[in-house]
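dumping this here so i dont lose it again. seq + smiles for zinc ion
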Amino acid sequence: MKNPTKNNTKIYIIDNLTIEVIYKKMKNIRLSVRYPAGDIRVAVPMRTTESKIRSFVLSKIDWIKKHQDNFKKQPIPSPKIYANNESHDFQGKTYLLNVIEGKITPKIEIKDENYINLYVKPNTSIAKKVLLMQKWYRETMKNEMVKLIEKWEKIIGVKTNEYQIKKMKTKWGTCNIREKRIWLNLELIKRPIECLEMVLVHELVHLLERYHNDRFYGFMDKFLPDWKQTDKILNNLRIQID
Ligand SMILES: [Zn+2]
């Protein structure tokens, strides 16, 4: 059964699973199972036949079901309230929050390798604490990004005109090739530093090759031979690398 929906997208039912198929200018079939609902999406080269898509999906059924089961086990995170001992992630590690109130300039620092100390004035609102944390995340990520961009522009032999840290809901990074402008997702500062580096290298490689084709992945293998392992850390999450 199939119903045409929006342009270049079709829905197939395969082995009782609803599969969203997107036809794209690309060389290889790419399958993703999306968090949190476990929606299945398959991106395929433009002229892929239905029977090829069906046999591809059937060959991956175990993999799909494993991912869907993992998502079911993961609790949906509740919003942070910035209380003492609440867990907050930073550079791939989970820290406990220490809220320290006093007549001081608000600041944040890592303490004893396990704590994030958040210094605030008494009765600071959650909204204000959110802003302080975001500012701290942004500043530390910016510092990392500056170093990594300098390193990788030299290695890859490209030059960006502009790069920014953005809050994005669906993408880890984007590259505007014509403007040579790269945006990275602020969430990356919560993941291991290799993730930030891998997404950055991915976006810089787009300045050499627009499409996710063999040439593109050839560059990735050459510049960051371990990129696939790092990709797996990000892979199960709902945000995509563009
Ligand atoms: Zn990409």
